[in-house]
Amino acid sequence: MRVNISEDRIILTGKAWEIQGLLRKYAKQHKLVKDWIESCAMVE
User: Fold this and answer.
1) What is the distance between the alpha carbons of residues 7 and 42, in angstroms, rounded to a whole number?
2) InterPro entries annotated for this entry (predicted)?
3) Dihedral of the CA atoms 19, 1, 25, 6 (nearest 10)?
4) Per-residue DSSP letters for the chain?
5) Beta bridge partners of residue 3, listed in sequence order
């Protein structure tokens, strides 16, 4: 499973069940994908 995060997108690569699980995990923390990207940009 790979997660590539850039300024304006997130690319998830892996098996379908891995991606679904990851999206469920982050859906609990972030309401929008935009929020997820912004939170990762603050860490870098």
Assistant:
1) 11
2) MciZ
3) -90
4) -EEEE-SS-EEEES-HHHHHHHHHHHHHH-SSHHHHHHHHHHH-
5) 12
What is the sign of the dihedral through the CA atoms of 2, 7, 23 and 44? positive
Torsions phi, psi of 8, nearest 5? -125, 10
Amino acid residing at 14? G
Kindly state the tokens that stand for 4.
Answer: 């590539």
Per-residue model confidence as pLDDT tens digits over 1-44: 998 887 778 899 999 999 999 999 988 998 888 888 888 766 55
Tokens, residue 31: 């309401």
